[in-house]
Design goal:
The complex is a heterotrimer. Chain A has 13 helices and 19 strands. In chain A, helix 8 packs antiparallel against helix 10 and helix 12 runs antiparallel to helix 13. Chain B is an all-alpha fold. By secondary structure, chain C is mainly alpha-helical. Chain C is built from nine helices and no strands. The longest helix of chain C has about 35 residues. The chains are: A alpha+beta, B mainly alpha, C mainly alpha. At the A-B interface, helix 5 and helix 11 of A face helix 2, helix 3, helix 5, helix 7 and helix 12 of B.
Chain lengths: ~500, ~325, ~270
């Protein structure tokens, strides 16, 4: 075998070439594919309520005056800073300079005025109109946006961070659903319905440029398909992976990391408080003691989820651990039913929306309730039917759903909310809470509220939904937690 | 013959009209409001009403029926409630997945069934025949979605030869696109091939017993020659009929397979639209599939009648 | 080929039918009991086939699942026969006139609708569950039996003993039920067996996508659907219900073939 001797002069050239090749191989990937279970029906976060819309566009394509950070903090976005008047009724937002919409138009306070007025309009289809209910007027005063409220409200900055409050341009407002135009670091590229949405880097972005050239959101609703897609590398990350039973396999595989975090999703066994015999607090208490949360978390979520004893997120500093009040005790449950005059038990309906926590959790709860004499008839519904029958029609006995809006304990103060809990004391408490600005007082009021709804056993408080995400080990910057439902890609990059 | 064509065409049109009525009426009675679904949990009543007006849901049923049917004639299948894009566009995009898949599955099915059926017929009663018949019995008994699960387990997850689903689009290249349709096509083809093999075999055996075959044999043609020259050609008629029916079945029947392999085809479109109460899409796609089935049957009937005049008068 | 398929077919069918019937009075374990701590157990002396993701005994689930599949398929075929056969007989009795045309056109119409799709539409729109599954599958059985009875009846109408009955003054309805029907019974049994096996597959398909019998009633199709994400960890959860479906459908098809060869010598061809 002849060895070929290379002339010495070639060495530096070869080294350079080798270095270039290695460098090219090491140049980080600039695109990412994110898997999502539900496809958004359209791309206008101000015109519809599907969380999937925000999961594609929030912080990526659209921005608001404020935004949520990954830990839930309210941060400045299009508003650089703000001043609040002493009476808490006037907010003056200083807006960022040099911001352009994706179609080239300049951003100004006029756009803020337009966006908020559009959301508040009578014919607006904004799903969270109540966020703006307290706003009296919005004006452009020397380039700053001045928001005047009808009454002092400690929640304004928080409300403006929601996806439903993003700023849009009057020129493009009509066609946002199919051609979203915002101010964010990514621009909309194209949408293959039923398959994927592609967004690309916005070169004219006002802030820190993103570290990706394109991002693709792929829609995979079947949990099996999601698993296969991750394993095959068809998607780089699944921030909300729908099959917790497979997470152990991902953890054991060095190619992947499992990203665990918390969400604002209180998963509860909602109870129709106006339907006999569920209107009897003893019966609801009996149900609470018949439920074994650990079995549900293990059986339905394979261990992912934190038990809760009231409608509040455990990671929130104001949380009170009231799980002991509804601990698993079937004997106590039967005794309570006897006290309520229902020794032979009773039957009711259990209507379940599509997610696994509801379908699987529902089967487990049905078995647990059967053990104390309560027969439930399970109906597996699609979201459309669930909204129709349970949410609007209030035609149900029990249901399981996860309430993912942050800080939503206020729903218990609405007597015609679907579970129909009517407690004047709680309503008064929440009314004062809305006006209260002192943080210590607010915390104490929240704790009081948690205790009230726990003592009244309004709903079966099951667990806080965990955010179980899977990602390629080299992908960094994804949100661990879900303070709002979004896939903020602004900090995402590929590590070498 | 012309009289036959005319009669069949009238029947075709009548079928379509009645079908459209049935489809429209049965879906109108279905509970569930697309507007509430789109706006979600916290939406207020006036917002929902505004959206309903926007979608045209507040018009009378009769008015909606006629505007829908009228649109069908001009190729305007309406506008999807959830996606706000023309249904015709969505259907066209999905057709680029469902149609090739149906053709692919039919091709695979035929490639297996023809040689197998001929082989079994030529070895009638022997070990070869029994084996083929046994396998087809098994093939017909296997649910195609279960077979799909097993295929994914072996070829996608364990061996990683194929991806477990999804469709990269025809832009990604013909080969890539076909690769992603392979496992689904195989899953669909298995039971179809089994049925087709049996039809091929029994049709061949029928023809082989016919008088004219004996005549051919008497003329001195060897068994093989007789088989290939005469039998096959005549045996093809019922086989083609079945293939026609299978094609329409594959187009609509791939609905579960499309779900298992998350293919953006017509089947999944229907599923998603039912779930989101996007009735316009459901109505239009169902009509389209009914049209496909009716057309194929029509063509097959005509072909059959043309080949065998005895069929034109009777049923 | 004649009796070779009858015996194995009958054995398989008997096996699953017995399992289904026995499940009405006894199953090794209660299928409505969920015991998470006992999940994913391998087959052992207590659980002959192991347990599923909820700790339920697989053998018991199979038995009750057999009951679900068989019940849905039988009633659906029953509907098909009870409605389809009289329609077909009526069409044949009125051959050529308006009633015949009307029935046959409607038949063709129903055939034009893709069966699985419509079944999914019906169950998804009006509510999933065994009852709607039965209706959906039943609807598509009607034209099959109508067409079959009509075709068979037409040829019997031409026979001598029927002509004699007509000459004797019997009306069409009496002739249909006293003379025609008994002579097509064999055909109906054979077709019924085939439709039965198709019904089992249809029920499995509907249950697989969640539109069949609802929890806590076990169903083979739903067992398969639940096993999908676990297929790598616990493949037996996918293999066992699938095999049950295959064996039951296979048994019914073999039985149907065997019955056809055994019951009607005229149908028996040199196969």
């Amino acid at each position: 075998m002849k060895t070929i001797k290379l002339p010495r002069a070639l060495f530096p050239a070869l080294m350079l070439a080798a270095g270039m090749v290695a460098g090219a191989a090491q140049a980080a990937k600039m695109d990412v594919t994110i898997g999502m279970q539900l496809e958004p029906p359209n791309l206008d976060p101000t015109g519809g309520a599907a969380a999937a819309i925000d999961e594609v566009v929030y912080a990526n394509i659209f921005e608001g005056l404020t935004r949520f950070g990954s830990d839930g903090a309210v941060l400045p976005a299009l508003a650089e800073s703000w001043e609040i008047s002493d009476d808490g009724m006037t907010y003056t937002f200083s807006l960022r300079e040099g911001v352009k919409f994706h179609d080239g138009s300049e951003f100004s306070a006029d756009d803020v005025k337009f966006s908020i007025e559009r959301a508040m309009a009578e014919d607006s289809t904004n799903a969270q109109k109540q966020l703006f209910a307290n706003i009296d007027s919005v004006e452009n005063v020397d380039g700053a946006a001045v928001v005047t409220l009808k009454a002092a409200d400690g929640n304004l900055l928080f409300n403006l961070a929601w996806g439903d409050a993003v700023i849009v341009d009057e020129k493009t407002a009509e066609t946002l659903a199919t051609a979203p135009v915002g101010t964010g670091p990514f621009k909309f590229k194209n949408w293959v319905q039923g398959d994927q949405i592609v967004i690309e880097k916005n070169p004219d972005y006002w802030g820190e440029p993103v570290k990706l050239d394109t991002a693709t959101f792929k829609f995979i609703s079947e949990p099996t398909a999601a698993f296969a897609a991750m394993m095959a590398g068809d998607v780089d990350a699944f921030p909300v992976f729908p099959a917790p039973e497979n997470l152990a396999q991902f953890e054991a595989d060095p190619r992947f990391t499992v990203v665990l975090g918390s969400t604002e999703g209180e998963t509860i066994l909602s109870t129709n408080n106006q339907l006999p015999p569920l209107d009897n607090v003893k019966v609801r208490q009996a149900i609470a003691h018949a439920i074994d949360r650990t079995a549900i978390i293990d059986g339905a979520m394979y261990g992912y989820g934190t038990p809760i004893g009231t409608h509040f997120a455990p990671h929130n500093p104001a949380y009170v651990d009231l799980t002991a009040k509804s601990e698993y005790d079937p004997e106590k449950s039967k005794a309570l039913l006897k006290e309520a005059g229902l020794e032979d038990g009773f039957s009711t309906t259990l209507k379940l929306p599509p997610p696994a926590y509801a379908r699987r959790g529902g089967e487990i709860i049905a078995a647990q309730l059967r053990a104390v004499g309560i027969e439930v008839e399970i109906s597996n519904l699609e979201w459309a039917q669930w909204l129709e029958q349970v949410f609007k029609g209030k035609d149900f006995g029990l249901t399981i759903v996860s309430h993912t809006e942050p800080m939503d304990i206020g729903i218990y103060a609405k007597p015609d909310y679907y579970f129909q809990y009517d407690n004047a004391d709680l309503q008064a408490l929440m009314a004062s809470f809305a006006e209260e600005t002192d943080s210590e007082q607010r915390t104490s009021m929240l704790q009081q509220a948690q205790n009230i709804i726990s003592d009244d056993y309004v709903n079966g408080y099951l667990f806080q939904l965990a955010k179980t995400g899977v990602a390629s080990a080299k992908l960094k910057g994804l949100w661990e937690n879900s303070p709002t439902q979004a896939n903020d890609l602004t900090g995402v990059f590929w590590e070498d | 013959m012309l009289h036959y064509i005319f009669k069949r065409t009238l029947i075709l049109l009548a079928t379509l009209i009645v079908a459209s009525l049935v489809v429209f009426v049965s879906l109108e009675v279905v509970p569930g409001d697309p507007a509430s679904y789109m706006l979600g949990l916290n939406a207020q009543e006036d917002t929902i009403a505004a959206l309903r007006a926007e979608l045209g849901l507040d018009k009378s049923k009769v008015a909606r029926y006629f505007s829908w049917v009228g649109g069908l004639f001009t190729g305007d299948f309406g506008t999807s409630y959830t996606y706000r894009t023309p249904v015709a566009d969505m259907v066209r995009d999905r057709m680029w997945v469902s149609l090739p898949l149906a053709i692919y599955a039919l091709a695979l099915s035929t490639l297996i069934a023809f040689p197998a059926g001929v082989y079994a017929a030529s070895r009638r009663g022997g070990a070869g025949d029994t084996t083929v018949m046994g396998l087809t019995q098994l093939g017909v008994a296997v649910p195609n979605f279960w077979f799909a699960m097993l295929l994914v387990l072996l070829f996608a997850i364990k061996l990683r030869w194929f991806s477990a689903g999804g469709f990269p689009g025809w832009d990604a290249g013909f080969f890539q696109a076909m690769k992603s349709l392979t496992l689904p096509a195989v899953a669909l083809a298995l039971p179809q091939a089994s049925i087709l093999t049996r039809v091929m075999r029994s049709s061949l055996l029928d023809v082989l017993n016919e008088d004219f075959m004996r005549t051919a044999r008497a003329k001195g043609l060897s068994r093989r020659q007789a088989l290939w020259k005469h039998a096959l050609r005549n045996a093809m008629i019922p086989v083609l009929t079945i293939m026609g029916l299978q094609f329409s079945f594959l187009l609509a029947g791939a609905i579960i397979i499309e779900n298992v392999f998350y293919l953006p085809g017509l089947g999944r479109l229907i599923f998603q639209s039912i779930a989101s109460r996007d009735l316009i899409v459901v109505e239009s796609v169902v009509m389209l599939l009914v049209l496909a089935v009716v057309l194929v049957t029509f063509v097959v009937d005509l072909a059959y009648a043309w080949v065998d005049p005895r069929l034109r008068g009777t049923r | 080929m004649k009796l070779r398929s009858l015996v194995p077919g009958a054995v398989l069918v008997l096996l699953f039918f017995s399992a289904a019937l026995i499940s009405y009075v006894w199953t090794p374990f209660d299928v409505t009991l969920i015991d998470i701590k006992s999940r994913f157990q391998s087959p052992d002396t207590m659980h002959w086939l192991g347990t599923d993701h909820f700790g339920r005994d697989l053998l018991s689930m199979l038995m009750v699942g057999a009951r679900t599949s068989i019940f849905v398929a039988i009633v659906a075929v029953g509907i098909g026969m009870l409605v389809g056969v009289p329609l077909g007989l009526a069409a044949a009795a009125n051959s050529g006139n308006l009633l015949d045309e009307a029935i046959m056109r409607t038949n063709d119409m129903v055939f034009a609708f893709p069966a699985l799709l419509i079944a999914i539409l019906i169950t998804a729109s009006y509510g999933p569950g065994a009852v709607n599954a039965i209706i959906a599958i039943g609807i598509f059985n009607i034209p099959v039996f109508a067409r079959l009875s009509r075709a068979a009846a037409l040829s019997i109408w031409k026979r001598d003993f029927v002509l004699a009955a007509r000459a004797a003054g019997k009306n069409a309805v009496r002739i249909s039920f006293e003379h025609i029907l008994p002579n097509i019974t064999n055909l109906l049994i054979v077709q019924g067996t085939i439709q039965f096996s198709l019904g089992i597959l249809a029920e499995a398909g509907l249950s697989f996508v969640g539109l069949g019998a609802q929890p806590p009633i076990p169903s083979w199709g739903r067992m398969l659907a639940d096993s999908q994400t676990l297929i790598m960890l616990e493949p037996q959860l996918a293999l066992i219900p699938g095999l049950a479906i295959v064996l039951t459908v296979l048994g019914l098809n073999l039985l149907g073939d065997g019955l056809r060869d055994w019951l009607d010598p005229r149908l028996r061809r040199e196969r």
